[in-house]
């Protein structure tokens, strides 16, 4: 096997995090996949690169030697990619490099950005993992990104990063087959889904961890079905094979329904994170305004989410009002308009 830059990135991630598991989350991989890749790399170089112990993974002398040569290569490749993208977008910072988790708000956000900046080039990079998006921001491959941080699993943002909070505690709903016994309830207790298989994306990292914690808190131990393809996941839900957590703005279909979970056991903070060195504060504020407007439009189109926001669902949680949303660090309001009206 010939070593590639992605292999060197993997070695650097393991060394930086001190753990194969943490490195896998950072890289958007599963731990078994990264472990297999590490074994192949070690076979290619002819020796062990890391020693696993109770304190994590530590580089061997050979590992230190390889890392000392790998880091400059990775840094140069990152710089090359950044320079190439800047050149492709034209001189003068006309290219806006956005990122985001796979959210339904992204299309509306991009439409507003294009309308506001009709002559600028805009790229979008979608990741399942918010941690992976943060790494792209830190490495200057993105200018701003929409991230989700499950409750209890915050991202460790560098102090220089700018954050605009869109929703401090956006709930995760559940998608299930229309014929599922729990589908008759306007709000579903998590315990009623304890015997179901739950679809999870292993690359989602903290989303999976938050789901496991919610199950543990409820005294449940459901089967987890690892599926990375969203289309396949949707088909499995429609067929009644499994259920899965989803955005509150997710749409029901003829074969599936979307329901809130009683007590909101799964929530996440939704934010726009940006590099101030890449964009002026005024542009970051404008990007946030575009995002908030798109989110409001999307939420207005969801009867289930509107009911949750207004506390109208039977046995549902109390209303989430605009007053619940704190101001941003720069004084730009982080609340959206009252969409429950």
TrEMBL record:
Location of the HTH lysR-type domain: 1-60
CDD domains noted in UniProt: PBP2_LTTR_aromatics_like
Keywords: DNA-binding, Transcription, Transcription regulation
GO MF entry, a single one: DNA-binding transcription factor activity
The keyword DNA-binding is assigned to this record: yes
Cellular component GO terms, alphabetical: protein-DNA complex
PROSITE patterns the record matches: HTH_LYSR
Keyword set includes Cell division: no
One Pfam family it belongs to: HTH_1
Region (Disordered): 316-341
UniProt cross-references to SUPFAM superfamilies, sorted A to Z: Periplasmic binding protein-like II (SSF53850), Winged helix' DNA-binding domain (SSF46785)
Protein family according to the UniProt entry: Belongs to the LysR transcriptional regulatory family.
Protein name, UniProt field: Peptidase
Phylogenetic lineage: Bacteria, Bacillati, Actinomycetota, Actinomycetes, Kitasatosporales
